[in-house]
Write a structure and sequence with these properties.
about 75% helix
Length: about 500
């Protein structure tokens, strides 16, 4: 029997003059979640010394967060749909603040690891509820473009902002403030959410798909963990292979179960839509390349050029500005007049061009001539891409599915980040080792050869990242065929369900 999902009444927030202040609250929460993925990176060496972490265990400061965040996003999105987006948003903020306070007060590595995992759990509630609140609040094409321009700018620049804030806090206070800083931000966002945000009630009569939760979240955790372990252990390590195999099997069974579940965790008509699937894939590929840039440029600036943490963070500032301009001043203005792929494909082409410039790095490259132009192109390209991705991926979804759709967008980011970090770092380190091994004949010149070898490894991996971004542009150009919003369906028109 065929049927069409009926649209729910329009949210009262469309007529609320305070909705733009509500956007500030949503943006603040999103920025906190995104920058927390990188803010700890610069603080990690200080935290390791302070708490006596081993080199083998220090990765868990990062991995504990990404595992919980990436693995539980689908669950967080569905919880938002069932119990209400505003309620889930506030719970996520309070929990994230509490976990951050625990992490900042950590007196042992295990306490910090646990706090970071807890941050990831509440981030998995917070991120999809924030995006779905934005989706259901701004449905007018003109307002939607502005709102998603701001959101896309924060999503694209949050990681770079994390480096800046992390560098300043670590250098002038200490590493603990990289966690404590979340507490006042979250408190302000909670107050703002209670006063300014509106929401439809949750679908309390619906049931949670428990088998789907176990299969979907288990599969995502296995994949994310596998990619995080591939970096230190190698791609052929038995644990890594077992994690990948388990992830693929669990996700395959998850897809099968979603076709039979009466209350699916991820209704498959959401990902069957060509435009939405293209946006998910474009996002994942773009983030693979972007994480490669952050990973290599952070080490290059500090280890090769000798930048301080603060100077390293500030070096990313022009890229952050370019992302904001690309999202709010170009994409947000043009998306009402052109199809999203007309922004996404050129954006990825620009970002890939920026990466190609970085392949020319040497041990004595200058920031102004070799790095700055690349960062500007990357930032502009990301700004052009992320805003239409978020807007198009969440358009045309029935309000009851907006949370899980938002979670799927965030999941594509997390999986892309995990793949990018593991894949590109493995290529860089193996290429560096081969370069150094083949050229290290004179012990007196070891330091110079090692430095050259490290940079050579970076440039080879950056070539691959540039190719992946070109692929992202190709995917966007071929798969995302949606028209400009003013010529197509309204943002809140529901997606038809497939024939049963």
């Amino acid at each position: 029997m065929s049927g069409t999902r009926t649209s729910e009444p329009a949210a009262p927030t469309d007529a609320d003059p305070r909705r733009w202040w509500g956007l500030v609250v949503i943006a603040l929460a999103q920025l906190m979640v995104v920058l927390d993925a990188t803010i700890v990176n610069i603080a990690l060496p200080s935290a390791q010394r302070d708490l006596g972490m081993s080199d083998g265990n220090r990765q868990w400061v990062i991995t504990a967060y990404t595992l919980a965040f990436g693995g539980l996003l689908l669950l967080g999105g569905r919880v938002a749909d069932l119990v209400g987006r505003k309620r889930t948003f506030v719970i996520g903020l309070i929990g994230f603040a509490a976990a951050s306070a625990i992490g900042g007060a950590a007196d042992a590595p295990v306490m910090l690891f646990g706090a970071r995992a807890l941050q990831g759990v509440f981030a998995a509630l917070l991120a999809p509820s924030a995006l779905s609140l934005l989706t259901t609040t701004f449905t007018d094409p003109k307002e939607r473009g502005k709102a998603f321009g701001i959101y896309g700018a924060l999503a694209g620049s949050g990681a770079a902002v994390g480096f800046i804030v992390g560098g300043v806090l670590t250098e002038y206070l200490n590493w603990r403030w990289c966690l404590y800083v979340n507490v006042p931000i979250a408190v302000a966002a909670v107050i703002g959410a209670l006063v300014l945000l509106h929401d439809r009630p949750g679908h309390t009569g619906a049931r949670l798909d428990v088998p789907g939760v176990l299969l979907g979240c288990g599969g995502l955790v296995s994949l994310v963990y596998g990619f995080s372990e591939a970096q230190p252990r190698g791609w052929t390590d038995p644990l890594v292979v077992a994690l990948f195999a388990a992830g693929v099997v669990l996700l395959a069974v998850f897809v099968w179960w979603q076709t039979r579940s009466p209350s699916p965790l991820l209704p498959l008509h959401i990902v069957r839509d060509r435009n939405r699937a293209g946006c998910f894939l474009t996002m994942m590929l773009a983030v693979i390349g972007m994480f490669g840039l952050f990973l290599f440029m952070t080490y290059y600036l500090q280890e090769i050029l000798g930048y301080s943490p603060v100077r390293t963070g500030l070096a990313f500032l022009p890229m952050t500005a370019a992302i904001v301009i690309g999202s709010t001043q170009i994409s947000a203005r043009l998306l009402r007049h052109v199809g999203p792929r007309m922004l996404m494909a050129p954006g990825m082409l620009l970002a890939s061009g920026g990466m190609v410039i970085l392949t020319q790095l040497t041990v004595d490259s200058r920031y102004a001539t070799a790095i700055l132009p690349a960062l500007l192109l990357m930032g502009l390209g990301m700004g052009l891409t992320f805003m239409p991705v978020f807007s198009t991926a969440t358009a045309g979804v029935a309000p009851r599915d907006s949370g899980v759709t938002s979670a799927t967008v965030n999941t594509s980011q997390q999986v892309g980040g995990s793949i990018g970090t593991a894949l590109l770092n493995t290529i860089a380190t193996s290429t560096s080792a081969s370069y150094i091994g083949s050229r290290l004949t004179d012990p007196s010149g070891r330091e110079a050869v090692v430095r050259e070898g490290i940079v050579h490894g970076y440039t080879v991996a950056i070539w691959l990242a540039a190719g992946i971004m070109l692929l992202a542009g190709l995917v966007a150009g071929l798969m995302v065929t949606a028209k400009a919003p003013k010529h197509g369906a309204p943002a809140d028109r529901p997606v038809p369900e497939p024939v049963a």
